[in-house]
């Protein structure tokens, strides 16, 4: 399928803008970010959109109707990646709608509503641990305090944005008027195994999971590893290790709750010194807020018991929290209709990952189309989709856009 081949070629080209090493590593406001935006801007122009870098580091492409202030459908996803991630997470949702819009343009199809495609600057939070910067800016919920977040080199988010060509002081001006927005639609790889198990190329998302992240600091006492008796040691790493195991036990015993300890730092991190301090992260996800809250409470109580038993101090800082959000019924039904019109099964499924829709939900109705990925693998260099599925998903989105055109003047159902 020509659409699929073209799309896969674009995704391969985008993946070259990465730090050296396995997979794709492209961080917010990095040289790789700057380079890939030049590529995306060219795709936008080919699709009939005018690209512009906004104050928060998003690259936004608009058609003439959007720039004239007509009611606008926003599409897009993020360009940034985790460290050593894959080439499709995020970038598929930027490249695919631009491919669909270019195909419609070349076919002479003019959509009777505004279009805005956004390559969000930061969704993963890899560099500054402050996620959804760009989508929160559009939704009008950006927190200026996040500008003080620092990367591992001590650079603040605000400083990085200024160096990148953004303007932190003008971020509040990016908030869209809800009355001028039709909705937000994102295409994304599933990052899970459901579509592959069903043997379906695409699926329609019903809701996005709730997520919370915490930073734990376990403090003990350093000492000479050779002269300090084992009994009575206040080893922060041993205590933290017990906490990690306990978190894993509770997560495995709790339905509809998943989580991970993904980052761990040891101080002084020396071969012959008892660890004095360990900092680690805990992320929890669940579609049900009460399940997540109950799991968090049980995990933190277990951590406190471990700390007390070993004479350690424990501090907990919540660094991020977003509640689960539902996709709009009218967009779910419209995407299902487009799937059926293209001969694709249109079963519904839940997203266990967070996306820019978590923020955009505060602005407008959201909808999401998932694309099958091999082995359900994501955030990994081996992340993969097929060219055939890419083409089929592009056709579904084209059908959705043209169907929406028939009712654009009336707006979404009420």
Automatic annotation (TrEMBL):
Protein keywords: Hydrolase, Manganese, Metal-binding
UniProt domain Peptidase M20 dimerisation: residue ranges: 210-308
InterPro entries: Amidase_Cbmase, Bact_exopeptidase_dim_dom, Peptidase_M20, Peptidase_M20_dimer
Pfam families, per the entry: M20_dimer, Peptidase_M20
Domain of life assignment: Bacteria
Cofactor annotation: Mn(2+)
UniProt family annotation: Belongs to the peptidase M20 family.
Subunit structure: Homodimer.
Identification of the protein by name: Allantoate amidohydrolase
Originating organism: Billgrantia sulfidoxydans
């Amino acid at each position: 399928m020509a659409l699929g081949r073209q799309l896969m070629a674009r995704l391969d080209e985008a993946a070259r803008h990465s730090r050296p090493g396995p997979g794709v590593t492209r961080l917010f406001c990095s040289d790789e970010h700057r380079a890939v935006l030049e590529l995306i801007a060219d795709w936008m122009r080919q699709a009939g959109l005018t690209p512009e870098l906004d104050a928060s580091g998003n690259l936004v492409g608009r058609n003439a109707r959007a720039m004239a202030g007509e009611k606008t459908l926003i599409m897009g996803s993020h360009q940034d990646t985790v460290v050593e991630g894959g080439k499709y997470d995020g970038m598929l949702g930027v490249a695919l709608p631009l491919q669909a819009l270019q195909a419609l343009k070349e076919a002479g199809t003019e959509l009777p509503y505004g279009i805005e495609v956004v390559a969000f600057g930061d969704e993963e939070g890899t560099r500054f641990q402050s996620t959804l910067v760009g989508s929160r800016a559009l939704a009008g919920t950006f927190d200026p305090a996040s500008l003080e977040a620092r990367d591992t080199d001590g650079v603040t988010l605000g400083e990085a944005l200024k160096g990148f060509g953004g303007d932190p002081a003008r971020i509040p001006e990016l908030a869209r008027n809800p009355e001028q927005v039709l909705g937000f639609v994102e295409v994304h790889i599933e990052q899970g195994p459901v579509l592959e198990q069903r043997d379906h190329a695409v699926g329609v998302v019903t809701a996005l999971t709730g997520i919370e992240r915490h930073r734990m600091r376990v403090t003990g006492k350093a000492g000479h590893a050779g002269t300090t008796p084992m009994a009575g040691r206040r080893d922060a790493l041993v205590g933290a290790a017990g906490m990690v195991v306990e978190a894993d036990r509770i997560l495995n015993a709790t339905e509809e709750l998943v989580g991970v300890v993904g980052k761990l730092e040891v101080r002084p991190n020396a071969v012959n010194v008892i660890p004095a301090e360990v900092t680690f992260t805990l992320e929890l996800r669940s579609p049900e807020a009460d399940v997540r809250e109950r799991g968090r409470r049980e995990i933190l109580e277990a951590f406190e018991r471990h700390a007390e038993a070993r004479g350690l101090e424990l501090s907990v800082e919540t660094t991020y929290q977003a509640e689960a959000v539902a996709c709009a019924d009218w967009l779910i039904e419209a995407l299902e209709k487009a799937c059926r019109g293209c001969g694709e099964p249109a079963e519904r499924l839940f997203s266990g990952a967070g996306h820019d829709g978590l923020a955009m939900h505060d602005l407008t109705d959201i909808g999401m189309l998932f694309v099958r990925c091999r082995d359900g693998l994501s955030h990994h260099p081996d992340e993969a989709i097929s060219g055939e599925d890419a083409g089929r998903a592009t056709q579904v989105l084209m059908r959705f856009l043209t169907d929406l055109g028939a009712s654009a003047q009336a707006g979404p159902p009420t």
